């Protein structure tokens, strides 16, 4: 078994350079690679292109990189709860490519599977389709979408072993699943790192062949993006 462990997030992100394209798993604040994001925010990286469902909130997740203007282009499906993301987009400080959520997921999965492009009806007749090839299938127009080409993919899992096999927990599986193995190098941070053979093979979501670096993270905050509660009945 190949031992893919690195000591920590600082060692894990070695090789990420300014100007690179980085995928980051998570949905809102659920299942985001907190340790690696914090380490990137503490670095002098700039001009990054980040692919993620959204950009967290102002003071957490990718919002930390936006605060320091480390991101040049954001590829996401929506702005979410991040006011700074919205401000930079509207002011023209940040290049933003909004992509339908299902298309974004499939562009990641296609890259993971080695599929260079695919046709989808989603977005036809809207700005999303501008400049893209259109082809009819069964009398319905589809637009051609290309798989993402990323330098690094950073995902967060619940459990993993030294060989890179990963298990996600609940909805934290989200974009982490299709992003693992979808870039030249995949980094996985996990809550629990175990010996090879300790994970039930029937429960593994991502095989180790898709992961190049893995480490056990620490001090996970697991924030809630927006807390909504019912008013107490009198």
Question: What would your notes on this structure say?
Answer:
18% of the residues lie in helices and 27% in strands. It is α/β, with parallel strands linked by helices. Strand 2, helix 3 and strand 3 form a beta-alpha-beta unit. The longest helix has 13 residues.
Question: Which features would summarize this protein structure in a list?
Answer:
single chain, 234 residues, alpha/beta, three-stranded antiparallel β-sheet, 27% strand
- Rounded mean pLDDT score: 94
Number of helices: 6
Shape: globular
What value does the Rg take, in angstroms? 18 Å
Secondary structure: elements and pairs:
Blueprint (H helix, E strand, L loop, with lengths): L8 H4 L8 E4 L9 H8 L6 E4 L11 H5 L3 E6 L6 H9 L3 E4 L2 H13 L3 E4 L13 E4 L2 E7 L3 E12 L4 E2 L8 H4 L3 E12 L18 E4 L18
Parallel strand pairs: 1-2, 1-8, 2-3, 3-4, 8-10, 10-11
Antiparallel strand pairs: 5-7, 6-7, 8-9
Summarize the structure in short.
With 234 residues, the chain is an alpha/beta fold.
